[in-house]
Amino acid sequence: MGKLRKAASYNEGYRRQQRRFMAPPDKHPSHGRWTALARAVPPKASVLDLGCGAGHFAEVLRSEGGEGRYLGLDYSIEAVKLARQREVSGATFKRMDLRKLQRKLVSRFDVIVSGQVFEHLEDDLALVDLLAGKLVLFTVPTFDSAGHVRWFPQRQTVVDRYTDRFHGLVIGPVGRSWFCCGVAKGASEVC
User: Fold this and answer.
1) For residue 2, is it within any domain?
2) I need a surface site. Which of 14, 17, 30, 102 has the fewest CB within 10 A?
3) Domain contains 83
4) Domain annotation covers residue 1
5) Is 80 in contact with 74 (CB distance < 8 Å)?
6) pLDDT at residue 45 above 60?
């Protein structure tokens, strides 16, 4: 599914900025993005979070009334350690390289959330195809940064990349990102 920056680089970033990553979500610049994602999740839906980072979204999801089972996956073991320290009720955090994600795990959840992850994957479309039939809520950045394989300065760049991979894809601005919501089609429906 494409390459990610080396885990050591991500781990180092989380270690260096541990204080920032452990701040309450409402003190973080991404709070608006996390809130938009959380408000789009039905209250009792189970959530698989692809790229959970330090667990901010899980905390916001609970504060916005999300009650369902939650599993957060991240490439960085340091991020997972920080997420676990948050002690979010009913949330589980595990380290996983998303390139090894299996359909069997995806099938156990109602909603897939992925905040600022697809831009790090060279073959993000293979990941999206694995999510077939699932409601997918995701954000992608409007800016370039270290580790990005691509970025989305205009809405049309999101449309061009993802519209044929989702039923009813809705795209709107949220902070310095694009908020996207749709049901993943899967490879057989795209070809």
Assistant:
1) no
2) 102
3) yes
4) no
5) yes
6) yes
Is 126 a domain residue? yes
Rounded CA separation 156/133 (Å)? 24
Number of domains the chain is built from: 1
Strands 70-74 and 47-50: parallel
Q: Which residues have C-beta within 8 Å of that of residue 51, sequence separation ≥ 6?
A: 73, 74, 75, 98, 114, 115, 116, 117, 120
Domain hosting 171: range is 7-190
Neighbours of 148 (CB within 10 A): 16
Is the pLDDT score of 4 beyond 60?
A: no
**Where on the phi/psi map is residue 4: left (φ > 0), alpha (ψ -120 to 50), or beta?**
beta
105 phi and psi angles, rounded to 5 deg? -70, -45
Q: Which two tokens stand for residue 10?
A: 């991500």
Give this prediction's pTM: 0.88
- Residue 33: HSE in the Cβ half-sphere, 13 Å Cα cutoff: 20
Return the pLDDT at 140. 95
Domain CATH for 44? 3.40.50.150
